[in-house]
Amino acid sequence: MSQEEKKQDAKDQLAFATIAAEAGSIKDGANPVSQPIYLSACYRHPSLDQAINFDRLKGFTYSRVEAPNRKVAEETIAKMEEGYQAFAVASGMAAVQLVLSVLKSGDEVVSLDDLYGGDFRYFRHLESHFGIAFKQWNGQKVEDLVSLLTDKTKIVWLETPSNPTMKELDIKKIADAVHNFNEKILVAVDNTFYTPYYQKPLTLGADVVIHSATKYLGGHNDILGGLVVVNDPDLADTYFQYTITVGDTMSNFDSWLLTRSLKTLPIRMDRHTASAQKIAKFLEMANHVEKVLYPGKAGMISFYLDSEAEVERVLNSVKVITFAESLGGAESLITIPYYQTHDDVEAEQRVRLGITTKLLRLSVGLEDPDDLIADLKQALGD
Ligand SMILES: *Cc1c(COP(=O)(O)O)cnc(C)c1O
């Protein structure tokens, strides 16, 4: 398919649920309806001529470079995000690294100050090893963000809603302001919490979308994966060369699991939202809960308890909900960001952002919400 045809294809969108349910056709001899898993590291060349004139859009050579199940997962997520091309990599952090791989020494990045904790650890590595400067914006006034931009700024890094304090950003307003300053600056949005079911950053003017596919897209707490989606064919080519070179590409097996999970993304997200709305309401009124942070969509709720003793009690006494450090799966998980996901954020910054030792983060799973409410009720005590 030519680049023009690919773009046209992306525009001829089916409805989201249809893209999801129909994901995974691989045309092979047995005509399976459900996608087979290709556990082959390499692929036969039918002739020298085919090998010399190899077209990577049409065939396969070696799994680091292109792989059938990975291709299906990538095409599905590209359609869901309404992007030109997607890259499936080994983890969300590998996706973060892929996006930042375009930076050179001396470049600058402006990021939101309230991000997934691991991002800051990688930012510090790039700062100390490669002399790349990272500036932080507090997510409030877009003019303040623009005032941090210089002729060295290459990327603006956003996450919305933010993790774990659930602040929402106006992606369109930010992308317009940044591109107005310099259209070459890449606006990158981590879309892990909302997924393309609720938010499609590329359609709002962003240049790059990042996912930890470990979370809602994988949805079953059984794969580790990351995705990057872009609109610009030249940027896609740059990322393709980088990912096949460093070899962080997603395996066929994980790609197969991911595509299987994407089929149910819409109904899972509907259920996560319905249950989380109910649980957020319960928490608002519950004993020992001081404040609830819930943006209204998807399944992530953060809440403050009135004492550290109560925090310990809840984490030690949940029975249906599991005390574990991830999100977006069928099983509800609860975590304490201060010690877990955000341990890599400077202590002073954690306090400033409100990531305290009394803040818990709940990922509402697919269980019956009444069982989850009963579990929280018994854990919170009198
Ligand atoms: C988990 C997470 C990441 C990192 O992804 P991994 O798959 O754990 O490497 C990045 N961003 C957000 C918002 C996350 O929740």
Automatic annotation (TrEMBL):
Its EC number is 4.4.1.2. It comes from the Bacteria. It catalyses: L-homocysteine + H2O = 2-oxobutanoate + hydrogen sulfide + NH4(+) + H(+); L-methionine + H2O = methanethiol + 2-oxobutanoate + NH4(+). Signal peptide: none annotated. One of its GO terms (biological process) is transsulfuration. GO terms for molecular function: homocysteine desulfhydrase activity; methionine gamma-lyase activity; pyridoxal phosphate binding. Belongs to the trans-sulfuration enzymes family. This is homocysteine desulfhydrase. It comes from Lactobacillus equicursoris DSM 19284 = JCM 14600 = CIP 110162.
